[in-house]
Amino acid sequence: MRLKIIVNAIRCKNCLSVIESVDHHDMKWCTCGKVAIDGGTQYLKRTGLLEDYDELSYCVPLNE
Ligand SMILES: [Zn+2]
After folding, report:
1. What is the pLDDT of residues 7-43, one digit of tens each?
2. Spacing, Cα 16 to ligand 1 middle (Å)
3. Strand partners for 36
């Protein structure tokens, strides 16, 4: 089952900034530069360490 990405977002645990990627090539860095996000609603891409951010993305099952 594939998932449709509704919101592609994370929160940096270090600087607490919430960043959201809204487009395929919309790469966003948090304020402190520890983590980044990309992919918009196409794919979930993260840069940085798993322990450095909280996942805030929201996906729903895709009806095919
Ligand atoms: Zn940060």
Report:
1. 999 999 999 999 999 999 999 999 999 999 999 999 9
2. 6
3. 29, 47
